[in-house]
Amino acid sequence: MTLQNELNSVEQQVAAVIESFVELGVSLYDFPGTAEASQGMATNLKRNVDRLAQLNRQSCDPRSQLNTVSVPLELVQYIEDGRNPDIYTREFVEAVRRSNQYQRAKMHALRQLRDSLATKITDQFPDLELCVNSILNTTNTNT
Fold first, then answer.
1. What are the tens digits of pLDDT across the range 36-82?
2. Are 81 and 33 in contact, with CB atoms under 8 Å apart?
3. What torsion do the CA atoms of 55, 57, 63, 68 make, to the nearest 10 degrees?
4. Is the pTM of this model over 0.85?
5. Distance between CA atoms of 103 and 128, rounded to whole angstroms?
6. How far is residue 136's CA from residue 125's CA, in Å, rounded to a whole number?
7. Domain ranges within the chain, ordered by starting residue
8. Residue 136 has what pLDDT?
9. Separation between Cα atoms, residue 8 and residue 98, nearest integer Å
10. 76: how many CB neighbours lie within 10 A of its CB?
11. Most buried in the list 33, 65, 78, 137, measured by CB within 10 Å?
12. Positive or negative CA dihedral for 63, 65, 70, 71?
């Protein structure tokens, strides 16, 4: 089974557990107090426990590709705090974008410094022009 198939399966199982817990909550709110209602809730709760145990076994299975999936602890904390994980993703992407812009600016500044130094060195020491050009050729990255 591919990783994507396993993730889809787990997603469906988690959705079923969540839906069942919502139904259980509604049942508790409207609980009539009969033995039959108590038995139904106990059965539903046992089914959820079994589903969660199955998910746990599936995630711990050494043959499962789910072992390779790593969820950042910050994301788990974010969700536990009741916040939307999509916002976490958006903030993470923005932080990476800002970092990339900063790194790109540093690379551009260093390239300008390299070119300026090369020009000044060849102006002051014309006999080093071949060495300077060699250095420029080896450090020239078109990024």
1. 888 888 888 898 899 889 888 887 888 888 877 788 888 888 888 98
2. no
3. 60
4. no
5. 31
6. 16
7. 1-70, 72-143
8. 92
9. 32
10. 11
11. 78
12. negative
